[in-house]
Amino acid sequence: MWNRTQQKSICLISPRTTATGLPSTVFTKWTIRDSLLAGRIFKKMGPGVKEDQTMPEGRLKCSKLSIIFFLLNVSNFVVPGTGFAMRSCRISYNIAICKGGLRYVPQDVPSTVKGFDLSSNKISKIRVSDFKSLSLVTQIDLSRNNILHIDTGSFADLISLKRLNLNNNKLVELADDVFKGLSNLTELRIISNKIKVVASTSFRSLTSLNFLDISYNKLDNLTKVNSILQHLPNLRVLIIKNINLTTFHSWELTNSSLQLTSLDLSQNPITKFSITEDVFPNLTWFNIGGYQKPMTWDVRNQTFLSRVSSLDISGLQVTFEDMKTLLESVNSSLNSIRMYAMKYKPTALINVTCTIPTMSTLKFRRNKLSFISSNLFHLCINVTELDLGDNKIKTIKDEAFRSIKGLRILTLSRNKLPTVPAATRNIPTLAELDLSSNNITRLECYDFANLTKLRQLNLYLNQITTLQECVFKDLKQLQVLKLQNNHISKITGAFKKYLPSLKQLRLNANKITTIKHGEFMGLQSLQNLSLHDNQIHTLNNGCFIGLTSLTDIQLQSNDIKTQEINSIFNDVINLRRLDLRNNHIKYDHSSALPHPPFSQLSLLETLAIPAQHSRGKAQLPCNILQGLTNLLVFNTRNSQLLSLPRDMFNYTPQLQTLDVSSNDLVDFSPDIFHPIQNLKSLYISRTSLRSLDFLNDAGLTKLEFMQARKNEYSVISEKVMDSLPSLIYVDFQGNSFTCDCNNAWFLQWIENNKQTQVFDAYRFECNYPTKLKGTKLLDFDIQFCTVRTEFICFVSTTCITILFMVASFTYHFLRWQLAYAYYYFLALLLDTKNKNKQAPYHYDAFISYNTHDEPWVIRELLPKLEGEQGWRLCLHHRDFEPGRAIIDNITDAIYGSRKTICVISRKYLESEWCSKEIQVASFRLFDERKDVLILVFLEDISTFELSPYHRMRRLLKRWTYLSWPQAEEHTELFWEKLRQALTTTEDHAEDRFLLTVMDRP
Predict the structure, then answer these.
(1) Is 25 buried (19+), middle (13-18) or exposed (0-12) by CB count in 10 A?
(2) For residue 363, is it within any domain?
(3) Which of 40, 391, 865, 896, CA to CA, is 20 to 30 A from 442?
(4) Helix, strand or coil for residue 285?
(5) Which residue range is the domain that position 177 belongs to?
(6) Which PANTHER family match (predicted)?
């Protein structure tokens, strides 16, 4: 036979294939011959294929690739991790806030948060796995839990942690290395636990700690405190209030490198305080008061506390001699001293204290000073701040503060003064005066005489009823005036002429009813005006004239009913914030106002207003916001609105926050939002909304925050959430969700989305259907609603992979049988009407033989049939066209000959190409139903030997044949029979003759 080269297999995985595995092709009407030639689509066969080749290396690689492809696609079915919906947590300013009686640290907190608030829960144990992957967290609050134990290494991953709060828990012991990994921690609070035992290495890792508050525990002695301090080289602030210390001896502090600047030992029952060496060389703030038992003071060297500038000895009980000694210890550095609730006579104590030349701040509260004499502070010549609050003072002598020449801050709050004391008039240096929470009922014109440097005056929580026009006449530099929570009903010109420097005026929570024309015209520097919670029902035209610097006015919670507010705010053109909520403002026109009330406030950024009420309904004029071109925040919450005008926001293109909660809006028109495409926050809670579909066409692509609680919609659609691509926080609490397939997408989105935080999603409950009412929305099983895309991909790719693997193995073992069968059946369908249109035959017979039998063909067969009988034969080595594909030559030869003579031997049966030739001949036999096949056996082949060759056995069961071995003595008869076989027509005949009868396989 001809040479055949070794073939290579190419493994292709392409979506552009038909179900049969063939590339998509337009099929025309093919004959079997055309179909067989098209087998080149599968493989273009070249010369020299090895007949004994079983599993080519290329095909083995294809099988391996199929397996790899299968394994890769299994990963498509992996369930994605949980998303941004957290059980009992929410994110606010990059801080995870987790409440609701949690017993364990939640594990679904995003790793990107910077803070973690777990306070006020029921967590009893901190485990090693609790804070994994939170390497960016800088602060954690675990206060007010039930924490009894912390596993070693629980904080090891918190490499960025700066502040840790463990206050109000039940810790009894701090074990070895309990704070391991917190090398960057700077602030630690462990207040109000039950700590008795501190291991020697508990604080070893806290090398950066500079603030420690371990107050209200049971450490009992200073040795335990020392075991903590020896590992904290950078500690600056130590607070150990009420840890049950009974003695303080400096020799118990063996750490010579203490750099404390602040120390709080208050509320400890210390009976002996002894410092025999300089253990606090940098101490500047010291608190040792707060316990009502006698103490012995023993500081051997006055230089040991010589750097203390702030001292708190409130409630300290030592002998008066020890008190002198104590104060002498800080005589050269003390700036501020606090002495609350002392047991000594005020005069003696103040005299001793005021002898310290550097002392400038004296805080003397709760010392039962009902009367202040003229000479009580005669030694306090260097005091600049004096706090006498909460002393029940009723009387102050006029000369009481005359000796304090440089007094700047005087606090007399929470006393029982009936009037402004005349003593304050003798303090021309005073900058701040606090007279709040007294019994002052009237202010006189001379009450603040000479206080020309006063900058802040607090008169709130008194019983002042009126303000005379002259009362503030000398307060040229006053900047802050607090008159809230009095009984003022009339202003009566107090702000018409004076207070040119005033920036903040608080008149809220009084009984003011009317603001008249020019009432504040003297306050040209005023920036903040608080008039809320009064009884104002009338705002006269020009009532705010002169307030050219005003930026913030609060008028909420009054009884404003005026119908002419169109020009009231024209005089405050620099206003930035205006609050008119909880009033009863009415408008003459519901469609459009002839004179919009805020048209001159082009700089206004925040506006809160009520709606017009009429017969139980509410509405807003369509041009209510005209002129507010820079408005950023608009609030009309709780106004009983039934609708919003369609073109209401045409005037506010910069609006970023809209709050229309607690109204009866029912629905929105998407057109409302088209002018405010910069909107970032939307509050639509309790608005009776039945759907959020209006958001589909609203165009709010920049919206980041949406609160939509307690409405009437039950389904959240995919289209709604897709219309809000920038949304990072949404609150759907209190809605009546439907637990059916309509919400399947929403449930998947809650769990899988990584951008939008759905606040408290794990508490959403089903309201419909009735049988599921009260169950958690996220517990609803949606698997029967939709087929997961991942599952579809998994099944599809798995089937494709398995099909590819089966096709690979089938192609190797049965590729020719399948190919020929395919094209055979294709030809049956497409070539029926052309069956009889056969082209003229070129040969009488095609000889199919193996190269090992070529001598018999040349010497015996060819001379007889061609030489003597005159038949024209086709032999491959002589008549095949060079350069054509082998399969093409075979097909053309068989279909171009009347007969096909198969010269069969054992070598013939073993040859792959001979097998292909007999396959083509048999296909022609079955297709054309003609007698075209002649079988000639050159060897006696037993039935057993033929058993592997099923095609040959099938032919022999239905067809006759010639045997050369049986004709050796009658060769002429053999050739005659063969001539007769070639001479017979192609019509099918059932009766055929045999030269020699053999056992048929």
Answers:
(1) exposed
(2) no
(3) 391
(4) strand
(5) 87-244
(6) LOW QUALITY PROTEIN: TOLL-LIKE RECEPTOR 13-RELATED, TOLL-LIKE RECEPTOR
